[in-house]
Amino acid sequence: MAKSKLEYIWLDGSAPTQGMRSKTKIAKDFSGKLEDCPMWSFDGSSTGQAEGGSSDCLLKPVAIFPDPGRRNAFLVMTEVLNADGTPHATNGRATINDDDNDFWFGFEQEYFLWDMETNKPFGFPANGYPRPQGPYYCSVGAANAYGREVIEEHLDLCIDAGLNIEGINAEVAAGQWEFQIFAKGAAEAGDQIWVARYLLERTAEKYGLAINWHCKPVSGDWNGSGMHANFSNSLLREAGSKEVYDKVCSAFGKSPEVIKAHIDVYGADNHLRLTGLHETQSIDKFSYGVSDRGASIRIPIATVENGWKGWLEDRRPNSAADPYKVAAQIIATVKTAEVMVAAS
Q1: Burial of 45: CB neighbours in 10 Å, binned 0-12, 13-18, 19+
Q2: Could you report the per-residue pLDDT of 38-82, keeping only the tens digit for each?
Q3: Which of 34, 165, 282, 293 has most Cβ atoms within 10 angstroms of its Cβ?
Q4: Which residues of 295-305 are buried (b: 16+ CB within 10 A; e: fewer)?
Q5: For the domain with range 3-91, which CATH number is right: 3.10.20.70, 3.20.20.30, 3.40.50.12780, 3.40.50.720?
Q6: What is the spatial distance between Cα 274 and Cα 57, in angstroms, rounded to a whole number?
Q7: What chemistry does it catalyse, as a reaction equation (predicted)?
Q8: Is the pTM of the predicted complex or chain greater than 0.85?
Q9: What sign does the dihedral 115-121-122-125 (CA atoms) show?
Q10: What letter would DSSP give residue 100?
């Protein structure tokens, strides 16, 4: 009788930034299909998601991938439900309004490899700082690129797991890297980002390193870490009109309340990163522009050259943001813009 390891992954109740938890279920003669993954449960009182007197929370499988890092194993992304089967308050996936998967998302996930001994980015000297940023972006060679073996192993694991990872690169600061994930369907994009994050954490763990998802772990003249959200739906992919793009972009800055609704789910401490420097717009301002990496929302030049048919990039989400919540808020705002376009 064959046995498989099913690694159930979920998001905990940590605040202001949720963390990942996981545990292994052994299944006999498992088919490898999502529909054959049973519902499971965990002690929510140990993850900040329930009281001890009524601590059971449910794990509902929502996506499954082969686990290339373990024998006879699968990675099972789950969402957390209350004991009665309703979405838990920490369940951002349940807030996504994209039943027809019309929304496509490409997330650019930045992060720092973190040296646990020095409590600094991997590649920073124990005392002081490395050379100023500049030579590290898309770098090669031991003088500029730190931890490539971790990044390459993670890339291979993501590919072997069937994630739609589209690329990697060294980022602007020493020890800072990025990977990109694309999916058709907001929930699926979120699932894949979280599984890729999980694989990265586990890979770095093997090397005695941590992953620092904080948006500004090093103060001073160093770039923060973002999770730029590239998005489109049928309206944007087929618009063929600058006016449509202006209406959609304007909807994101329609009022202070709308701007706040986005910033509230774009990651903790984002004021440290969104300063107006280092390719960001200030957190208290909203702007959009063609090919403008200092704007809140960038209109890619490829969209313009394609006759205003393409996508937009929201540059405000930070590296620790929950992609489910980011996608849900973007979808809600685009849908309000669709109403304005239809009425015009």
Answers
A1: middle
A2: 999 999 999 999 998 889 999 999 999 999 999 999 999 999 999
A3: 165
A4: bbbbbeeebee
A5: 3.10.20.70
A6: 36
A7: L-glutamate + NH4(+) + ATP = L-glutamine + ADP + phosphate + H(+)
A8: yes
A9: negative
A10: T
